[in-house]
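Hi P.,

Sorry for the delay on this. The queue was packed all week, but I finally got your sequence through. Input first:
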Amino acid sequence: MNAKFQPLFEKLALRSGIELKNRVVMAPMTNFASNPDGTVSDAEVAYYARRSAGVGMVITACAYVTPNGKGFAGEFGADSDEMIPSLRRLASAIKEQGAVAVLQIFHGGRECPPDLVPNGELVSASAVPAEKEGAVTPRALTETEVEEIIRSFGESTRRAIEAGFDGVEIHGANGYLIHQFFSPHSNRREDRWGGSLEKRMAFPLAIVAEVKKAVAAHAKGPFLVGYRFSPEEASTPGFTMADTLAFTDILADQQLDYLHISLNDFWSQPRRGVEDTKARILLVHEQVKDRVPLIGVGSIHTPEEALKALETGVPLIALGRELIIEPDWVQKVQEGKETEIATVLKKDAQDRLVVPDPLWQAIINTPGWFPVAD
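Then the structure:
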Protein backbone atom coordinates (compact mmCIF):
# COMPACT_ATOMS: atom_id res chain seq x y z
CA MET A 1 0.00 0.00 0.00
CA ASN A 2 1.11 3.53 -0.75
CA ALA A 3 1.95 4.96 2.70
CA LYS A 4 0.07 8.20 2.04
CA PHE A 5 -3.23 6.28 2.07
CA GLN A 6 -2.58 4.78 5.49
CA PRO A 7 -5.05 7.18 7.22
CA LEU A 8 -7.88 5.49 5.31
CA PHE A 9 -7.00 2.23 7.06
CA GLU A 10 -6.86 3.38 10.66
CA LYS A 11 -9.32 1.66 12.97
CA LEU A 12 -12.07 3.63 14.71
CA ALA A 13 -13.77 2.62 17.96
CA LEU A 14 -17.34 3.88 18.24
CA ARG A 15 -19.19 4.82 21.42
CA SER A 16 -21.15 1.54 21.52
CA GLY A 17 -17.98 -0.56 21.53
CA ILE A 18 -18.22 -1.46 17.84
CA GLU A 19 -14.82 -1.11 16.13
CA LEU A 20 -14.44 -0.33 12.44
CA LYS A 21 -11.39 -1.81 10.72
CA ASN A 22 -10.97 1.23 8.46
CA ARG A 23 -12.48 4.63 7.66
CA VAL A 24 -14.36 3.66 4.48
CA VAL A 25 -18.12 3.08 4.61
CA MET A 26 -20.50 1.76 1.96
CA ALA A 27 -23.20 4.41 1.69
CA PRO A 28 -26.87 3.40 1.78
CA MET A 29 -28.18 3.09 -1.78
CA THR A 30 -31.58 1.91 -2.98
CA ASN A 31 -31.24 -1.02 -5.36
CA PHE A 32 -34.95 -1.73 -6.17
CA ALA A 33 -34.25 -5.48 -6.04
CA SER A 34 -36.18 -6.89 -3.06
CA ASN A 35 -39.03 -9.35 -3.48
CA PRO A 36 -42.60 -7.97 -3.76
CA ASP A 37 -43.42 -9.26 -0.26
CA GLY A 38 -40.64 -7.14 1.24
CA THR A 39 -38.12 -9.92 1.76
CA VAL A 40 -34.52 -9.61 0.60
CA SER A 41 -33.86 -11.28 -2.75
CA ASP A 42 -30.99 -13.60 -3.65
CA ALA A 43 -29.68 -10.96 -6.08
CA GLU A 44 -29.62 -8.38 -3.29
CA VAL A 45 -27.74 -10.68 -0.91
CA ALA A 46 -25.14 -11.36 -3.60
CA TYR A 47 -24.84 -7.62 -4.39
CA TYR A 48 -24.08 -6.76 -0.75
CA ALA A 49 -21.72 -9.70 -0.24
CA ARG A 50 -19.72 -8.59 -3.29
CA ARG A 51 -19.14 -5.15 -1.71
CA SER A 52 -18.61 -6.03 1.95
CA ALA A 53 -15.08 -7.46 1.98
CA GLY A 54 -13.09 -4.23 1.95
CA VAL A 55 -15.09 -1.51 3.69
CA GLY A 56 -15.22 -1.11 7.45
CA MET A 57 -18.99 -0.71 7.54
CA VAL A 58 -21.93 -1.33 5.21
CA ILE A 59 -25.11 0.71 5.61
CA THR A 60 -27.96 -1.01 3.81
CA ALA A 61 -30.65 0.56 1.68
CA CYS A 62 -33.55 1.79 3.78
CA ALA A 63 -36.02 -0.68 5.25
CA TYR A 64 -39.56 0.51 5.98
CA VAL A 65 -40.79 0.30 9.58
CA THR A 66 -44.55 0.21 8.81
CA PRO A 67 -46.51 -0.98 5.77
CA ASN A 68 -47.54 2.62 4.96
CA GLY A 69 -43.91 3.71 4.96
CA LYS A 70 -42.75 1.75 1.89
CA GLY A 71 -41.01 4.29 -0.31
CA PHE A 72 -39.90 2.30 -3.38
CA ALA A 73 -40.81 -0.69 -5.45
CA GLY A 74 -38.25 -3.38 -4.63
CA GLU A 75 -37.59 -2.14 -1.10
CA PHE A 76 -37.24 -4.61 1.77
CA GLY A 77 -39.12 -4.40 5.03
CA ALA A 78 -38.43 -4.43 8.76
CA ASP A 79 -42.08 -3.92 9.68
CA SER A 80 -42.95 -7.32 11.14
CA ASP A 81 -41.30 -10.26 12.85
CA GLU A 82 -41.91 -12.31 9.68
CA MET A 83 -39.12 -10.22 8.13
CA ILE A 84 -36.46 -11.29 10.65
CA PRO A 85 -35.25 -14.37 8.67
CA SER A 86 -34.95 -12.17 5.56
CA LEU A 87 -33.02 -9.53 7.48
CA ARG A 88 -30.80 -12.23 8.98
CA ARG A 89 -29.75 -13.37 5.49
CA LEU A 90 -28.63 -9.85 4.67
CA ALA A 91 -26.81 -9.25 7.95
CA SER A 92 -24.98 -12.56 7.64
CA ALA A 93 -23.92 -11.91 4.04
CA ILE A 94 -22.34 -8.59 5.04
CA LYS A 95 -20.71 -9.77 8.27
CA GLU A 96 -19.28 -12.93 6.71
CA GLN A 97 -17.17 -10.69 4.45
CA GLY A 98 -15.78 -8.80 7.47
CA ALA A 99 -17.77 -5.55 7.49
CA VAL A 100 -19.91 -4.11 10.27
CA ALA A 101 -23.56 -4.46 9.14
CA VAL A 102 -25.93 -1.54 9.73
CA LEU A 103 -29.63 -1.58 8.82
CA GLN A 104 -31.03 1.77 7.72
CA ILE A 105 -34.61 2.21 8.96
CA PHE A 106 -37.11 4.71 7.64
CA HIS A 107 -40.65 5.76 6.79
CA GLY A 108 -41.30 7.39 3.40
CA GLY A 109 -44.22 9.58 4.50
CA ARG A 110 -45.64 11.67 1.66
CA GLU A 111 -42.88 10.43 -0.70
CA CYS A 112 -44.32 6.89 -0.84
CA PRO A 113 -45.91 5.80 -4.13
CA PRO A 114 -49.66 5.40 -3.41
CA ASP A 115 -49.73 1.97 -5.07
CA LEU A 116 -47.25 0.60 -2.52
CA VAL A 117 -49.09 1.55 0.68
CA PRO A 118 -52.36 0.27 2.19
CA ASN A 119 -55.42 1.86 0.54
CA GLY A 120 -53.12 4.19 -1.38
CA GLU A 121 -53.23 6.63 1.55
CA LEU A 122 -50.11 8.73 2.08
CA VAL A 123 -49.41 10.20 5.50
CA SER A 124 -47.14 12.98 6.71
CA ALA A 125 -46.72 15.57 9.43
CA SER A 126 -49.34 17.77 7.74
CA ALA A 127 -51.63 17.68 4.70
CA VAL A 128 -49.09 19.42 2.46
CA PRO A 129 -47.96 17.86 -0.82
CA ALA A 130 -44.33 17.82 -1.93
CA GLU A 131 -43.23 20.59 -4.30
CA LYS A 132 -43.21 18.52 -7.46
CA GLU A 133 -45.55 17.92 -10.35
CA GLY A 134 -48.29 15.41 -9.64
CA ALA A 135 -47.55 15.19 -5.92
CA VAL A 136 -50.34 13.66 -3.84
CA THR A 137 -51.60 15.53 -0.79
CA PRO A 138 -51.00 13.31 2.26
CA ARG A 139 -53.19 12.98 5.33
CA ALA A 140 -51.84 14.49 8.53
CA LEU A 141 -51.01 11.84 11.11
CA THR A 142 -52.98 11.91 14.35
CA GLU A 143 -51.05 12.24 17.60
CA THR A 144 -51.77 8.57 18.32
CA GLU A 145 -50.43 7.56 14.91
CA VAL A 146 -47.29 9.64 15.44
CA GLU A 147 -46.62 7.75 18.65
CA GLU A 148 -47.30 4.41 16.91
CA ILE A 149 -44.73 5.20 14.20
CA ILE A 150 -42.17 6.16 16.85
CA ARG A 151 -42.73 2.77 18.50
CA SER A 152 -42.37 1.11 15.08
CA PHE A 153 -38.82 2.45 14.80
CA GLY A 154 -38.08 0.80 18.14
CA GLU A 155 -39.63 -2.48 17.01
CA SER A 156 -37.63 -2.46 13.77
CA THR A 157 -34.51 -1.91 15.86
CA ARG A 158 -35.38 -4.99 17.94
CA ARG A 159 -35.77 -6.97 14.71
CA ALA A 160 -32.39 -5.74 13.49
CA ILE A 161 -30.84 -6.95 16.76
CA GLU A 162 -32.54 -10.34 16.47
CA ALA A 163 -31.43 -10.61 12.83
CA GLY A 164 -27.79 -10.15 13.80
CA PHE A 165 -27.11 -6.62 12.55
CA ASP A 166 -24.43 -4.61 14.34
CA GLY A 167 -26.50 -1.45 14.37
CA VAL A 168 -29.18 0.72 12.80
CA GLU A 169 -29.09 4.05 11.02
CA ILE A 170 -32.15 6.27 11.47
CA HIS A 171 -32.89 7.82 8.08
CA GLY A 172 -33.81 11.42 8.81
CA ALA A 173 -32.76 12.78 5.42
CA ASN A 174 -33.78 13.14 1.76
CA GLY A 175 -37.35 14.31 2.19
CA TYR A 176 -38.79 11.26 3.96
CA LEU A 177 -41.05 11.26 7.02
CA ILE A 178 -38.53 12.26 9.70
CA HIS A 179 -37.28 15.02 7.40
CA GLN A 180 -40.93 16.02 6.82
CA PHE A 181 -41.46 16.57 10.55
CA PHE A 182 -38.31 18.72 10.77
CA SER A 183 -39.29 20.84 7.75
CA PRO A 184 -41.42 23.99 8.11
CA HIS A 185 -42.67 23.28 4.58
CA SER A 186 -44.21 19.89 5.33
CA ASN A 187 -44.86 20.36 9.07
CA ARG A 188 -47.58 22.96 9.77
CA ARG A 189 -48.76 21.27 12.97
CA GLU A 190 -49.82 23.25 16.03
CA ASP A 191 -49.45 20.46 18.59
CA ARG A 192 -46.31 19.26 20.38
CA TRP A 193 -44.94 17.86 17.11
CA GLY A 194 -44.79 21.11 15.15
CA GLY A 195 -44.47 24.87 15.11
CA SER A 196 -41.19 26.20 16.44
CA LEU A 197 -37.81 24.76 15.44
CA GLU A 198 -37.64 23.03 18.83
CA LYS A 199 -41.04 21.41 18.31
CA ARG A 200 -40.08 20.29 14.81
CA MET A 201 -37.13 18.49 16.39
CA ALA A 202 -39.46 16.55 18.71
CA PHE A 203 -40.32 13.69 16.33
CA PRO A 204 -36.75 12.84 15.27
CA LEU A 205 -35.51 13.11 18.85
CA ALA A 206 -38.36 10.87 20.07
CA ILE A 207 -37.32 8.26 17.49
CA VAL A 208 -33.70 8.47 18.63
CA ALA A 209 -34.85 7.91 22.22
CA GLU A 210 -37.11 4.99 21.24
CA VAL A 211 -34.36 3.30 19.21
CA LYS A 212 -31.88 3.66 22.07
CA LYS A 213 -34.49 2.25 24.45
CA ALA A 214 -34.89 -0.80 22.20
CA VAL A 215 -31.11 -1.29 22.12
CA ALA A 216 -30.92 -1.10 25.91
CA ALA A 217 -33.75 -3.63 26.26
CA HIS A 218 -32.74 -6.18 23.62
CA ALA A 219 -29.06 -5.99 22.60
CA LYS A 220 -26.85 -8.55 24.30
CA GLY A 221 -23.64 -6.84 23.18
CA PRO A 222 -22.44 -3.68 21.43
CA PHE A 223 -25.01 -2.30 18.99
CA LEU A 224 -24.57 1.04 17.28
CA VAL A 225 -27.10 3.76 16.47
CA GLY A 226 -26.42 6.36 13.76
CA TYR A 227 -28.53 9.19 12.36
CA ARG A 228 -28.60 10.49 8.79
CA PHE A 229 -29.73 14.02 8.00
CA SER A 230 -29.90 16.47 5.10
CA PRO A 231 -28.21 19.84 5.68
CA GLU A 232 -30.80 21.99 3.89
CA GLU A 233 -33.84 21.75 1.67
CA ALA A 234 -34.85 23.68 -1.42
CA SER A 235 -38.55 24.03 -0.47
CA THR A 236 -39.91 27.37 0.70
CA PRO A 237 -40.33 27.61 3.58
CA GLY A 238 -37.69 24.99 4.17
CA PHE A 239 -35.15 24.31 6.86
CA THR A 240 -31.85 26.13 6.48
CA MET A 241 -28.24 25.46 7.33
CA ALA A 242 -28.77 27.41 10.55
CA ASP A 243 -31.65 25.09 11.53
CA THR A 244 -29.48 22.06 10.84
CA LEU A 245 -26.59 23.41 12.91
CA ALA A 246 -28.99 23.92 15.83
CA PHE A 247 -30.36 20.39 15.37
CA THR A 248 -26.98 18.67 15.02
CA ASP A 249 -25.82 20.49 18.15
CA ILE A 250 -28.56 18.64 20.03
CA LEU A 251 -28.03 15.36 18.17
CA ALA A 252 -24.36 15.45 19.15
CA ASP A 253 -25.42 15.06 22.78
CA GLN A 254 -27.72 12.06 22.21
CA GLN A 255 -25.00 9.43 22.77
CA LEU A 256 -25.13 8.31 19.14
CA ASP A 257 -22.35 6.39 17.41
CA TYR A 258 -22.24 8.71 14.42
CA LEU A 259 -24.02 11.37 12.40
CA HIS A 260 -24.21 10.89 8.63
CA ILE A 261 -24.71 13.94 6.43
CA SER A 262 -26.48 13.38 3.10
CA LEU A 263 -24.64 15.28 0.34
CA ASN A 264 -24.24 14.95 -3.41
CA ASP A 265 -20.92 16.78 -3.12
CA PHE A 266 -18.71 16.57 -0.04
CA TRP A 267 -17.51 20.16 -0.63
CA SER A 268 -20.91 21.79 -1.33
CA GLN A 269 -21.56 25.16 0.31
CA PRO A 270 -24.63 26.43 2.21
CA ARG A 271 -27.56 27.89 0.28
CA ARG A 272 -29.02 29.98 3.08
CA GLY A 273 -29.18 30.48 6.83
CA VAL A 274 -25.49 31.24 7.40
CA GLU A 275 -23.10 33.76 5.92
CA ASP A 276 -20.17 31.36 6.05
CA THR A 277 -18.92 30.00 2.71
CA LYS A 278 -17.24 26.93 4.22
CA ALA A 279 -18.46 23.54 3.03
CA ARG A 280 -21.61 22.43 4.82
CA ILE A 281 -19.90 19.37 6.22
CA LEU A 282 -17.13 21.49 7.75
CA LEU A 283 -19.71 23.71 9.46
CA VAL A 284 -21.40 20.64 10.95
CA HIS A 285 -18.04 19.16 11.94
CA GLU A 286 -17.11 22.38 13.76
CA GLN A 287 -20.49 22.33 15.50
CA VAL A 288 -20.35 18.75 16.79
CA LYS A 289 -16.55 18.80 17.34
CA ASP A 290 -15.44 15.54 18.95
CA ARG A 291 -18.79 14.77 20.60
CA VAL A 292 -19.82 12.35 17.83
CA PRO A 293 -18.10 11.04 14.67
CA LEU A 294 -19.37 12.37 11.35
CA ILE A 295 -19.64 10.43 8.09
CA GLY A 296 -18.93 12.50 5.00
CA VAL A 297 -20.14 11.53 1.55
CA GLY A 298 -20.64 12.97 -1.92
CA SER A 299 -18.83 12.58 -5.25
CA ILE A 300 -15.77 10.93 -3.75
CA HIS A 301 -14.30 8.59 -6.37
CA THR A 302 -10.51 8.28 -6.07
CA PRO A 303 -8.32 7.45 -3.08
CA GLU A 304 -6.84 10.96 -3.35
CA GLU A 305 -10.33 12.48 -3.03
CA ALA A 306 -11.11 10.25 -0.05
CA LEU A 307 -7.85 11.20 1.62
CA LYS A 308 -8.46 14.92 1.04
CA ALA A 309 -11.90 14.56 2.63
CA LEU A 310 -10.47 12.66 5.59
CA GLU A 311 -7.83 15.34 6.10
CA THR A 312 -10.59 17.82 7.04
CA GLY A 313 -10.94 15.93 10.32
CA VAL A 314 -14.17 14.19 9.32
CA PRO A 315 -13.36 10.66 10.54
CA LEU A 316 -15.40 8.47 8.18
CA ILE A 317 -15.85 8.63 4.41
CA ALA A 318 -18.74 6.92 2.62
CA LEU A 319 -18.59 5.73 -0.99
CA GLY A 320 -21.77 5.15 -2.96
CA ARG A 321 -21.75 4.92 -6.73
CA GLU A 322 -18.02 4.24 -6.76
CA LEU A 323 -18.55 0.92 -4.94
CA ILE A 324 -21.06 -0.11 -7.60
CA ILE A 325 -18.52 0.63 -10.33
CA GLU A 326 -15.58 -0.81 -8.33
CA PRO A 327 -16.55 -3.31 -5.60
CA ASP A 328 -12.84 -3.89 -4.83
CA TRP A 329 -12.05 -0.19 -4.29
CA VAL A 330 -10.73 -0.66 -0.74
CA GLN A 331 -8.74 -3.79 -1.54
CA LYS A 332 -7.08 -2.16 -4.55
CA VAL A 333 -5.97 0.80 -2.44
CA GLN A 334 -4.74 -1.56 0.25
CA GLU A 335 -2.76 -3.61 -2.28
CA GLY A 336 -1.17 -0.58 -3.94
CA LYS A 337 -3.25 -1.09 -7.08
CA GLU A 338 -5.13 2.22 -6.94
CA THR A 339 -4.32 2.88 -10.60
CA GLU A 340 -6.49 -0.15 -11.47
CA ILE A 341 -9.63 1.27 -9.81
CA ALA A 342 -12.46 1.51 -12.34
CA THR A 343 -14.20 4.89 -12.58
CA VAL A 344 -16.54 4.17 -15.49
CA LEU A 345 -19.30 1.57 -15.66
CA LYS A 346 -18.92 -0.78 -18.63
CA LYS A 347 -22.23 -1.79 -20.22
CA ASP A 348 -21.22 -5.46 -20.32
CA ALA A 349 -20.11 -5.61 -16.66
CA GLN A 350 -23.38 -6.35 -14.87
CA ASP A 351 -22.65 -9.99 -14.08
CA ARG A 352 -19.04 -9.35 -13.10
CA LEU A 353 -20.07 -6.51 -10.78
CA VAL A 354 -23.00 -8.51 -9.32
CA VAL A 355 -25.55 -5.72 -9.75
CA PRO A 356 -29.25 -6.73 -9.52
CA ASP A 357 -31.17 -6.21 -12.74
CA PRO A 358 -33.60 -3.51 -11.47
CA LEU A 359 -30.66 -1.36 -10.31
CA TRP A 360 -28.71 -2.04 -13.49
CA GLN A 361 -31.64 -0.98 -15.67
CA ALA A 362 -32.09 2.18 -13.59
CA ILE A 363 -28.41 3.02 -14.05
CA ILE A 364 -28.30 2.35 -17.78
CA ASN A 365 -31.55 4.21 -18.45
CA THR A 366 -30.89 7.30 -16.30
CA PRO A 367 -28.56 9.60 -18.25
CA GLY A 368 -25.92 11.33 -16.17
CA TRP A 369 -26.47 9.25 -13.04
CA PHE A 370 -23.32 7.15 -13.62
CA PRO A 371 -20.38 7.50 -15.98
CA VAL A 372 -21.14 4.70 -18.46
CA ALA A 373 -19.04 3.43 -21.36
CA ASP A 374 -19.57 0.72 -23.97
